[in-house]
Specification:
Number of strands: 10
Strand order of the largest sheet: 6-7-8-3-9-10
Strand content: 25-35%
Bound molecules: adenosine-5'-triphosphate, magnesium ion
Order of helices and strands: EEEHEEHEHHHEHEEE
Oligomer: single chain
Helix content: 25-40%
């Protein structure tokens, strides 16, 4: 797979100032967050349950809009952008969830191909492309399997393959290792690190900070909706 991001440029990929998010219930999930993430970084988003990690990740692909403050994602103003511009950001973003969200009625091939199929890719182009990302996650023998025939860790690797199929500059992962044993979690993290080494910005919400020993990265810490720590110095 070809990636063409110039690592040396360190372009800003996400930038926010005084970002605030209030849910319709009145709950303020994020209050006055200032943060800049550059292309090519590997960022851990940490903090207690309810700190605002998932809410922040959702704003990075337009699943939620800021209530006030500034948020630029891949040069798009996420407060002002219309639906088409938000969809364009989403197409340039890979997403991995804790519960992988694979379609159990579809084969591995169909699950991974989906993001490109909606862009009109033919089977002829899709098959070699899907094979390539399956090789990356080392599951190329499972192209025609159904997800239920795979283990939890294998399903999560398929979800990573699906997230990377359209070579997005950014991959967001929300507790991708939350349901996995430690060895499988390390393996999934190896894949995300490998993707990062190819130039992809990876932002991952996690409680598993012991993974940092083997997989270093920038650690951004939220507490009750506010930014309380940022180990920028350790940024990759
Ligand atoms: N759809 C929603 N409507 C109203 N409040 C919400 C909604 N989703 C989340 N919240 C609240 O916003 C706050 C932040 O939630 P969020 O899911 O972002 O936390 P988190 O850091 O991802 O937590 P966890 O580690 O448990 O996943 C919490 O107080 C939560 O109850
Ligand atoms: Mg969460």
């Amino acid at each position: 797979m070809r990636y063409c991001f110039a690592m040396s440029e360190r372009k800003t990929i996400i930038d926010m100032q005084q970002l605030m998010l209030r849910y319709p219930t009145g709950k303020v999930a994020l209050s006055g967050v200032n943060l800049t993430i550059s292309q090519g970084q590997f960022v851990y988003l940490t903090g207690e349950s309810g700190a605002g990690k998932s809410s922040l990740l959702r704003m990075f692909y337009g699943g939620l809009r800021p209530s006030s403050g500034q948020l630029q994602v891949q040069k798009t103003d996420m407060r002002e952008a219309g639906e088409a511009a938000v969809r364009a950001v989403r197409r340039r973003t890979g997403i991995v969830f804790q519960d992988h969200r694979l379609l159990f009625s579809r084969t591995v091939f169909e699950n991974i191909a989906l993001p490109l199929r909606v862009q009109g890719w033919s089977n002829e182009r899709l098959i070699p492309r899907v094979r390539k990302v399956l090789e990356f996650v080392r599951l190329d023998d499972r192209l025609w399997s159904y997800p239920e025939a795979l283990s939890g860790g294998e399903q999560q690797r398929i979800a990573i393959a699906r997230a990377m199929i359209a070579t997005p500059p950014v991959v967001l992962a929300d507790e991708p290792t939350g349901n996995l044993d430690e060895e499988t979690a390390r393996h999934v993290l190896d894949l995300l690190m490998g993707l990062n080494e190819l130039g992809t910005t990876v932002i991952m919400a996690t409680h598993d900070l012991h993974l940092l020993n083997s997989h270093p990265g920038r650690v951004v810490q939220l507490h009750a909706g506010a930014l309380v720590g940022d180990s920028h110095a350790a940024a990759r």
